[in-house]
Write a structure and sequence with these properties.
The structure is a homodimer.
Chain A (H helix, E strand, L loop, with lengths): L1 H24 L2 E2 H8 L3 H13 L3 E8 L6 E7 L4 E8 L3 E8 L4 E8 L7 H21 L3 E9 L3 E2 L4 E5 L4 E5 H5 L5 E5 H12 L8 E6 L3 E7 L2 E3 L30 H4 L1 H4 L6 H9 L3 H25 L3 E6 L1 H20 L8 E4 L6 H16 L18
Parallel strand pairs in A: 4-7, 7-11, 12-15, 15-16
Antiparallel strand pairs in A: 1-3, 2-3, 4-5, 5-6, 8-9, 9-10, 12-13, 13-14
Organism (chains A, B): Sphaerisporangium aureirubrum
InterPro entries (chains A, B): ATPase_NBD (IPR043129), HTH_MarR-typ (IPR000835), ROK (IPR000600), WH-like_DNA-bd_sf (IPR036388), WH_DNA-bd_sf (IPR036390)
Protein name (chains A, B): ROK family protein
Chain lengths: 395, 395
């Protein structure tokens, strides 16, 4: 029994090693996979066979092996079967997307809706409808969805699938996973964390170095990516940029504090009464002085909060995402000016300020991408049961 | 040649494994060391012999092996030969300490002196004198000092041994290592980072979970310890708590910004004209209303900056060190009140606020401790050349 268990663990480890190698460096011949992983060619061939049978890998024609010049058939990740569902509940929209194993975006849907005016159960029911539609589209494409992650605008408990507090939605301790009741494994995570991962995997990625990704919405969150991974803090609540104090005696905030960044640079502070984001962008394009002044004010407050963040976190790059992406041409000047006036004397390196490449879909993409990461780290649940126990360990 | 090199690398790795095991779990028998490291008993015995010859380990009498009940002679780290020098240049004092391999403090000296009134070269010359005295004391104790780390109140470049900018000293790009010219390897690091490590190794340590250690001096720095290691940021400049913006249009700061925490809660803001820290503590003890009000004001500003830090970093614990340690009874109430009023609605866990156990010596202790960490990670430079190449690799 212990032997069989050990064999299963070994096979799972080896499958993850081969799949990870294909993800990072593919396409690769079986010989190159053996070289790269330290496994024998026989073991690699068996594991690759399993991955091909499961639709996770595919042969991609004859290539010349880079290192030794031998001809061989290359293997690469395949996106034709395994996929992941990314979902987002935010204050004024719902979003859903399907991403395949190669991280190609296969389906993406956004639904503008004011989620503040309805009870949580109804919002979650709407998300279920959207998810069901998107899952049907994925099935029509021949995709099998391995799991889902839901992005939520507040601190979450991933164990219970609950969002503790989403002040801009007016939610407190809402059991999202249980209420959603989708027919696949569902995990919850913070929207700003997932948006940062979305930028890492679907946006400008590694070129950013260590970066702070700012998600401007009605709330403002941030995710810090360090060495290709997310810095989450002791309880997973790091990156609450929206509640960085800009002016201690400023207007009260829904978080219970006052003078928080959200009150100066959140979507509600930027838009005029009843205005939409495209409406504001149109006013900015036409040179409307009030709109320009509103962006300068918000950008200065954002610059102050980001000065503080840079002093504490020291990132290479600050990425402006969410609503700050379309507003970048009008908001970035005052952010940059504030950062430089407050940091350049003290800091040899003031962080570069760039626009998000993943854009407004960063959070649902990061959500789907984190399911793909899990599949690549442990593909065994998606494979048939292991064959007879005579396989070999990593060398 | 490659074989010899490989052999040397292997021996170095194995020595580090055995020394690390003794550091974490010692005293241990050779059998227990073999079990814990996966090395054979023969290899362990040779490596332990080398470590005993180098004065880094010592036999500590017969013990019963915990796991299997066999009697054996236990081996433990020895502090009788290898030691490390920790140094600190701060605005109003110099400090030096010697710590042995077991992290016992063997010598510690602090010298109050106003380092703002003299040129950098003179400050560094004074530190050299202090270091030389302390090294002589260490030599008299039979200790051999492996290296030194200098704590500096500003961002440093460890490669060139330079402090970029220490605004409270008025220093800019001062080559500390070269000017100090001590007859042993010297590295520079940021004072607040080292103080956090000092708290980890010589203070309350692992019981704090992930913690933010605040070093209150004339400047205010912080070091974040995550999973037992320091979070340094992309360029090593993380944790500049003193320049977190408390009030954007507040008084100008030496960093080039304005309304920074240092202006509200640094030592100069707390002390009356010409007053010393013991003087302030005496006034506080006698219930002087002005002194109490000064602590409340500083504590509120510190609480605002720490609210921001908690929102961004999400630590388990916040440790108040430096001058905040003696002021803790009078300053902690307003810090705690501010943290709770601003965080408790949103955050399921408001960080605990505790007093530093390492106290005002945290930075030089962390400096010496980081030399010890390096010795334990790579003891070979302190050992005689390796014997003939027939040793065995890690199993």
């Amino acid at each position: 029994m212990a032997g069989a268990l050990r064999h299963g663990t070994m096979r799972a480890g080896n499958l993850a090693v081969v799949l990870g190698e294909l993800d990072r460096r593919g396409p690769l011949t079986r010989a190159a996979l053996a070289d790269g992983t330290g496994l024998t060619k026989t073991t690699v061939s068996k594991l690759v066979g399993d991955l091909i049978d499961a639709g996770m890998a595919v042969e991609s024609g004859a290539v010349r092996d880079g290192e030794r010049g031998r001809p061989g058939t290359a293997v690469r990740l395949s996106g034709h079967r395994v996929a992941a569902l990314g979902l987002e509940i935010n204050v004024d929209y719902l979003a859903a997307c399907v991403v395949d194993l190669t991280r190609e975006i296969r389906v993406i849907r956004t639904q503008p809706v004011d989620n503040r005016s309805v009870p949580p159960a109804e919002v979650i029911a709407r998300l279920r409808t959207l998810a069901t539609t998107v899952l049907a589209e994925a099935a029509a494409l021949g995709l099998s969805v391995a799991g889902a992650v839901v992005a939520l605008p507040g601190p979450v408990d991933p164990i219970t699938g609950t969002v503790h507090r989403a002040p801009n939605l007016g939610w407190r301790d809402v059991a999202v996973t249980d209420t959603l009741a989708l027919p696949l494994p569902v995990v919850v995570d913070n929207e700003a964390n997932l948006a940062a991962l979305g930028e890492l995997w679907f946006g400008s990625g590694p070129s950013l170095g260590d970066f702070l990704h700012v998600s401007g919405e009605i709330g403002i969150g941030a995710g810090l990516v360090v060495g290709g991974g997310l810095f989450r803090g002791a309880h997973g609540f790091a990156g609450e940029l929206g509640h960085v104090v800009v002016t201690p005696d400023g207007p009260p905030c829904r978080c219970g504090g006052s003078g928080c960044l959200e009150r100066y640079a959140g979507q509600d502070a930027l838009l005029a009464e009843g205005e939409t984001l495209p409406g504001l962008v149109a006013r900015l394009r036409s040179g409307d002085p009030e709109a320009l002044e509103s962006c300068t004010r918000a950008g200065t407050a954002l610059g102050i909060a980001l000065t503080t963040a840079a002093n504490l976190l020291d990132p290479d790059t600050i990425v402006l995402g969410g609503i700050y992406a379309p507003l970048f041409p009008w908001i970035s000047t005052s952010v940059t000016r504030t950062l430089h006036s407050r940091l350049s004397q003290m800091h040899p390196k003031v962080p570069a300020l760039v626009i998000s490449a993943a854009g407004t879909n960063a959070a649902p993409l990061g959500a789907a991408g984190s399911v793909i990461q899990r599949v690549i780290a442990d593909p065994t649940p998606l494979l048939p049961s292991p064959p007879a126990p005579h396989q070999e360990a990593i060398g």
